[in-house]
Design brief:
Layout (H helix, E strand, L loop, with lengths): L7 E7 H5 L2 H9 L1 H16 L8 E7 L20 E11 L3 E11 L7 E5 L13 H8 L4 H7 L8 E3 L5 E14 L7 E2 L4 E6 L11 E12 L11 E12 L20
Length: 266
C-alpha cells in the first residue's frame, strides 16, 4: 500500500467477508450508500499514515452471490436502492465528467470561523448549509428556553462563501450497457433495451465500447434529462456501479448492435 502510484486506488472487498459481520450485513441491506460512504472514510483514515504519497482508497464490492444476479431488462421501480449483479456489454460512453462530490462553505459573518461541508448528489442542484450554528448560538445566548424557541424562527439569514481549496471533485462517466447472454455455440445474444450505468474514479475510461463486464451496482432513480418542466414526475432507473469484473475479451461477435459513443438518453 505504501507504494501506491495512482492518486486513486480501488480497494476490493469480498461480499462474503462483509456479510460475516452481522452489523455490517445489516447496513448492506438497508443503507448501502451510507455504508459505502462511512467505510471509505474509515478506510482512508486508517491507511493515511502508511502512504508515502497522496493516495485515496475507493471501496469496491466483489464476488457477489448468485442470488444477486439479475437481467437489466427485468428491473422495475420496486428494485430501487437494491444491489444486483448484471452481465453486460458496453455499447456507448460519454467523455469523462467532473462531479462536485463535497462542497465546503465558510460563514461570511465577521468574526465567525465556522466551516461546514455538504455532500452533494450527482446531477442535482448544489445544496448549501442552513443556519450557521456558531452565529445562531451567539444570537440566542442569554435567552430563556421559551424565548429561544421563538427567536429561532427569526434568526438572521446566513451568508456563506465557498472554500475552493476544500472542494472535492471526482471523475464520473456514463456508460450505455445492455444485457448479454453467453452462448458457447455462437454469438452472444443481447437484451432489448439500453441502460445507463455511472462509474467513477479509476473506472472512468477503463472500459471501452465492446467491453464485456459484470457490474455490481445499486439501482438509483434519476430525472428524465429531456424533461420539459421542473416538476415532471417521470423517472428513469440508473445503475450506480460499486464493483466491476471482466467477463471476456472485448466483444466483436454480436448481432445487430448499434455502436454509439454516448448513452442513448443523455
Amino acid at each position: 500500500m505504501s507504494t501506491c502510484e495512482e492518486e486513486i486506488f480501488s480497494f476490493e472487498v469480498e461480499w462474503n467477508d462483509l456479510c460475516a459481520d452481522p452489523i455490517i450485513q445489516g447496513y448492506l441491506g438497508d443503507s448501502l450508500d451510507h455504508f459505502m460512504t462511512i467505510a471509505e472514510t474509515v478506510l482512508n483514515d486508517r491507511f493515511l499514515h502508511f502512504m508515502q504519497r497522496p493516495c485515496r482508497l475507493v471501496l469496491r464490492l466483489n464476488g457477489l452471490t448468485e442470488d444477486h444476479k439479475r437481467k437489466l431488462d427485468s428491473l422495475r421501480m420496486r428494485d430501487r436502492r437494491k444491489l444486483f449483479t448484471f452481465d453486460t456489454l458496453v455499447v456507448g460512453r460519454t467523455p469523462p465528467l467532473g462531479y462536485l462530490q463535497r462542497a465546503s462553505y465558510a460563514c461570511a459573518a465577521k468574526g465567525c470561523d465556522y466551516i461546514g461541508q455538504i455532500d452533494q448528489r450527482l446531477a442535482r442542484q448544489r445544496e448549501s448549509p442552513g443556519q450557521c450554528p456558531k452565529c445562531a448560538e451567539r444570537y440566542l445566548a442569554g435567552l430563556e428556553p421559551e424565548e429561544r424557541e421563538m427567536a429561532k424562527r427569526y434568526l438572521p439569514r446566513p451568508s456563506y462563501r465557498m472554500v475552493d481549496e476544500d472542494l472535492r471533485y471526482i471523475d464520473v462517466q456514463y456508460l450505455s450497457v445492455m444485457d448479454v447472454n453467453p452462448d458457447s455455440e455462437g454469438p452472444w445474444s443481447l437484451g432489448d433495451h439500453v441502460w445507463t450505468a455511472v462509474v467513477d474514479e479509476d473506472f472512468v475510461d477503463a472500459y471501452p465500447v465492446g467491453s464485456l463486464v459484470r457490474l455490481h451496482a445499486s439501482v438509483q432513480v434519476d430525472h428524465l434529462p429531456e424533461r420539459t418542466f421542473d416538476k415532471d414526475t417521470r423517472r428513469v432507473m440508473v445503475l450506480r456501479v460499486e464493483g466491476i469484473e471482466m467477463l471476456d475479451e472485448p466483444a466483436t461477435h454480436f448481432d445487430e448492435v448499434t455502436w454509439t459513443s454516448e448513452p442513448a438518453w443523455r
